[in-house]
Amino acid sequence: xxxxxxxxxxxxxxxxxxxxxxxxxxxxxxxxxxxxxxxxxxxxxxxxxxxxxxxxxxxxxxxxxxxxxxxxxxxxxxxxxxxxxxxxxxxxxxxxxxxxxxxxxxxxxxxxxxxxxxxxxxxxxxxxxxxxxxxxxxxxxxxxxxxxxxxxxxxxxxxxxxxxxxxxxxxxxxxxxxxxxxxxxxxxxxxxxxxxxxxxxxxxxxxxxxxxxxxxxxxxxxxxxxxxxxxxxxxxxxxxxxxxxxxxxxxxxxxxxxxxxxxxxxxxxxxxxxxxxxxxxxxxxxxxxxxxxxxxxxxxxxxxxx
Length: 306
Fold this sequence. Notes:
There is one protein chain. The protein is an alpha+beta fold. It has helices at about 15-20, 45-55, 65-75, 90-95, 120-125, 160-185, 215-225, 290-295; strands at about 1-5, 25-30, 35, 40-45, 60, 80-85, 100-105, 130-135, 145-155, 230-235, 240, 245, 260, 265-270, 275, 280, 290. It has a seven-stranded mixed sheet with strand order 5-2-1-6-7-8-9, with helices on both faces. A four-stranded antiparallel sheet has the order 10-11-16-17. Strand 10 and strand 11 form a beta hairpin. Helix 1 (about 15-20) runs parallel beside helix 6 and helix 5 runs antiparallel to helix 7 (about 215-225). The longest helix has 24 residues, at about 160-185. The chain is elongated. The protein starts with a strand and ends in an 11-residue tail after the last helix.
């Protein structure tokens, strides 16, 4: 079966590898254009583009699927399109090109967390279980019928990065199984059932920690926004990035945002019990341990996060 693969970030690469490894004829890869990365803003291919180039697969770079891109997709003559975090909408004209349609691997248990940041939003909400589905792509936002589902328990120390890494590999297997079933005429998609929740793309402001919230909510948010856009707070008007915090329910109470030393640990007060900082990155500096950062503060007890 001839497959068009659409994807952009690193989490889509295991799916591309799985399809090639399973013997599918991946005739082209649709991915976002090269993007400037790093302080020098060097134009860099997407992880999927880099992998496709290494595999010798034709690459279609497109920020938007317009009529010209649709014509290139049609010229590749795919029987089906597999899409994993491409990062753009697929219009009706392109959806109609493959005879088996577009099959999307989405990292949530639809209809929960429809949108661009399902894993991040799931962690922020405190879900105990998440997963991935394959579904038939429609013009609506992640509304299509579901082919297959897998579940994944959320671990206490999971960040969006670690959870997505696991789901990218288990989801690649699910996608390969789904396309095999489609190829064999044995796939059956069923309508989504359950409560709908939305997972819009995260903005920088989503990473700001509100120290008046309970410690558990702060911990969930910090894990959900790691690695991107990152958890942060402010001190004297300067933004400080933080890695996920540890729960310290047994520690003496502190006012929200108030800092205190406890041995080698640095505690911060919340709306409930304190949390312990792990690593801190002041503006213009590298990430460092909280203890190293605290040594640079004249009187830590007078420091209050805003």
